[in-house]
Amino acid sequence: VGGLVAAGGLVAGAQALATQRSIDGYTSPAVDRRRLDDLVDERDQQALTADVLLGLGLTTAAVGLVWFLLR
Predict the structure, then answer these.
(1) Across 26-35, average pLDDT
(2) Is the model's pTM score more than 0.70?
(3) 2 exposed, middle or buried (CB, 10 Å; 0-12, 13-18, 19+)?
(4) How far apart are CA 15 and CA 46, in angstroms?
């Protein structure tokens, strides 16, 4: 279970990186600020989701391993 949750974190992290590439593509000074702000918010949400899922997944896997070894 922990591995699946961590894999979800990796997917969310990949999405955050893809969103960051979209943000980096906005180099024109005439860029739509509202769209850029929405992309930054989306990237931040994806990064937070990745952090939480990776932490939760790794913790769950570690607890499962310890439980297995102590049984």
Answers:
(1) 75
(2) yes
(3) middle
(4) 7
Total residue count of the chain as it appears in this document:
71
Q: Cβ neighbours of residue 10 under 8 Å, at least 6 residues apart? A: 50, 54
Q: What is the pLDDT of residue 29?
A: 67
Q: 9 with 57: CB under 8 angstroms?
A: yes
- Six token digits for residue 49: 């989701």
- For residue 20, the tally of other CB atoms under 10 A from its CB is 15
Spatial contact of 20 and 50, defined as CB atoms under 8 Å apart: no
Amino acid at 27: T
Residue-wise pLDDT tens digits, 49-59: 999 999 999 99
**Which spans in 1-71 are helix H?**
2-24, 33-70
